Amino acid sequence: MTTLSPQSPPNPRMPAEWAEHEACLMVWPTRASLWGPAYEAAKREYAAVARAIADFEPVIMIAAPGLADEARAALGDPAPRAAGDAPAPAPRDTGADTARGHGIEVIELPADDSWLRDSGPIFAHDEQGNRVGVDFRFNAWGEKHHPWTADDKLASLLLDRLGVERVHSSMVLEGGAVTVDGEGTLITTEQCLLHPNRNPRMSRTEIEDELGRRLGIEKVIWLPYGGLEDTETDGHVDGVAAFVAPAKVVVSLPEDPAHPDYARMRANLAVLNASTDARGRALDVVAVPQTTYGEVAGTPVEVGYLNFYLANGGCVVPVGGADRSATDEAALAVIAAALPGRKVVGVPTPVLAYGGGGVHCITQQLPKAARA
């Protein structure tokens, strides 16, 4: 773990994912070659995730040119806006028992792929409480998928559409590679952030310094591992750990010794148990021992329970099957206990896992502007 020097003047700070959102941002499935025979099923899962999130907060779905009508038909957004109109999602009360139901708006922007957590902007608040969008470089997870030019430009176009100030960074970074507490602490994995296919000319210290400048990070906790089978992202942290409250982290801890990450996740646990956050607090670590596998197009896939989305008053969790297996139910119960006051909802997403991700990977929260 590394504690960074205090920054002066104050830098923008990324809020925690449980801070109130104005909306959730997504991209409609675009790269048919990625999904192959599961392409139509992928669209159904994206729609199911969007509808589940819309029970808690507005959703803005980006569709590549030519796909907007298809997305609207699947999502129930019958009234396209004029080309120059900016989205205007309505605010909501974040209480867990308030009335549900928010709109899903579809807008058109060029996109190569549909993993907005990684290709989109990462939002932060400046010292006046205004939102800024940090536009890190995107290289398709180490140049794994071609082309990615539109995705690398997507953050800038989206920020312009939303009317949010853009802050540029020359560092390659995907949103799924980090989790933050909103108070200056960030957790990531060495497996991903130090991979030579991301920023080969940057040292660990230089990466930490850039996280401090752009996201207000004062302390980085480096886990050694992401998921062994997470070859698409080279081990994003959102498959293995997530902040859920100040000084509180949920972690994957497979209970089966035959699981490929059994020893690796225990190495992560040891780091977290020995760590403190940016304010010097020991971490409360909650283990999620459940894992589940499915099969899509003849390929076995692991559905990662920790790849969830924290919505206003809720949490949308990827689960393995429509039959709500005992394993799914047990994992949802652990996550719900770690998130008191939130309604925890499971959405079957084996096809997302087949494509290389989960609910967190296809979403990005648009935080509300903070009060200065």
Question: Descriptors for this entry?
Answer:
372 residues, alpha/beta, L-arginine/glycine Amidinotransferase, Chain A, four-stranded mixed β-sheet
Q: Could you provide a short overview of the structure?
A:
With 372 residues, the chain is α/β, with parallel strands linked by helices. It has helices at 32-35, 39-54, 68-75, 116-119, 140-143, 149-162, 190-193, 204-215, 262-273, 326-338, 350-355, and strands at 2-3, 21-27, 59-63, 104-108, 122-125, 131-137, 165-172, 179-180, 185-189, 219-223, 241-245, 248-252, 284-288, 292-296, 299-303, 309-311, 314-319, 343-348, 364-367. Mean pLDDT is 92; it is low at 78-100.
User: Helix share of residues?
Assistant: 25-40%
Computed over alpha carbons, the radius of gyration is 19 Å
- CATH architecture descriptor text: 5-stranded Propeller
In whole angstroms, the N-to-C terminal distance is: 31 Å
Order of SSEs, N→C? EEHHEHEHEEHHEEEHHEEEHEEEEEHEHE
* Uncertain spans: 78-100
How many DSSP H or I helices?
A: 11
Structure description:
By secondary structure, the chain is an alpha/beta fold. The protein has a single domain, classed as 5-stranded Propeller (L-arginine/glycine Amidinotransferase, Chain A), CATH 3.75.10. 26% of the residues lie in helices and 25% in strands. The chain is built from 11 helices and 19 strands.
Topology (elements, then pairings):
Blueprint (H helix, E strand, L loop, with lengths): L1 E2 L17 E7 L4 H4 L3 H16 L4 E5 L4 H8 L28 E5 L7 H4 L2 E4 L5 E7 L2 H4 L5 H14 L2 E8 L6 E2 L4 E5 H4 L10 H12 L3 E5 L17 E5 L2 E5 L9 H12 L10 E5 L3 E5 L2 E5 L5 E3 L2 E6 L6 H13 L4 E6 L1 H6 L8 E4 L5
Parallel strand pairs: 2-3, 3-4, 6-7, 9-10, 12-13, 17-18
Antiparallel strand pairs: 1-10, 2-19, 5-6, 8-9, 11-12, 14-15, 16-17
